[in-house]
Amino acid sequence: MAQNGISENGVTEGVPALPFPQPTEVQEIRHTKIFIDNEWHTSCRGRTFPTFNPATGVKLCEVEEADKEDVDKAVEAARAARQRGSVWRRMDASSRGRLLHKLADLMERDRLLLATLETLDTGKPFLQSFYIDLDGSIKTLRYYAGWADKIHGKSLPVGECVSTNVCFSPALSCGNTVVVKPAEQTPLTALHVGSLIKEAGFPPGVVNIVPGFGPTAGAAIANHMDIDKVAFTGSTEVGQLIKEAAAKSNLKRVTLELGGKNPCIVFADCDLQLAVEETQKGAFYNQGQCCTAASRVFVEESIYEEFVRRSIENAKKIVVGDPLDPQTTQGPQIDRQQFNKIMDLIESGKKEGAKLEYGGEAVGEKSLFIQPTIFSEVKDHMRIAKEEIFGPVQCIFSFKSQQEAIERANSSQYGLVSAVFTRSMDRALSVSAALETGTVWINCYNALHAQTPFGGYKMSGNGRELGEYALAEYSEVKAVTIKLSETI
Q: Which residues form the Aldehyde dehydrogenase domain (predicted)?
């Protein structure tokens, strides 16, 4: 059964198979500088930082490190690009849509290179980079390209002599300019896309990319008086700092996509094997380094033992190894800090009385690989039940009643995504209505689409990305009221 366009043999339906990259065939990394005004720049302070292949520990290259001065230059370029009379401001909406389509075309052309860079920089298995990440990015560009000439105002009759027009300040697809700071651990694909933005024909200054660190480049963005909106994906702790900085600066709008401790509720009447496979996709995809990770799996008591048994058997099929090997399904963690955090949480699970059913160990002495790990008999008070692990750890709980499952699922500071597995549509709809999460998947997991809004409740953030709802986050509403002449 294909999920998210991926068939069982790892090939995306409708996408031709391409030669699998070999390490010796990887092209030289071309773009390592700061991208401002469609030009490549060295950092103002002359500093660089290394980026590593987490699978091997080998340094890939040095990347220019943006600081406050570089962010100021990027913001200045972005503001200039959106001034009245600029090329971008005068461009009609359909032309902006065509530019987004052109960028999608170029990403299709460079898909193999981009996927290889992503795998080298993150450790993610290549097939996931190529068939899931790149596919999703390209589809999202095309989706918003289609919106570019469809965002418009409304005329509202409010009496005989008055007309009101509601006008939207353009979202990215219809006129905003942006400054992008990629994660310092993984800047390479974003920088390559900068070259494609220029090649596609975007005017200078519309998109600017400033690789750097959170306390410097990130803080400069959050505190900048000339930035109108910040969208951030990352930890809840950093999201709180960004929101505070935004409030203390120019009260800029902020949307946040933060942590998750996502519950899956598996009822006894479900398709059991489907539930096992989908919850493990949720737990182990991208080495568990997903805000959507299925890290709390609540299983009805009568099927609990069988669910655990099948989960162990399924986990044994996971191949941990070289991300550039087509057989690999799990790569390394992103860096030593994250590796250590995961291992510490695994040890806490053992000490607090959870039953380690499978995995729980590092693979190799000095590598960043961790075995897929399954805990059963997990209790709600344990650290592994409350803290976001962000690693390949699946925690399986048991429950007796539907009401109990809902209450325990909701007893978290997070509220990003959840899932329900049952053959009863009445139960599925009833439970999904009760779950305090921004997304609920029924009999599936990680079903993300450009058309569907995505975001969280509680400390998982605020605002929505993707879908039509995201347009409101990148636009302003203006009411213009005109008194009409009473004469005929």
A: 41-160, 169-480
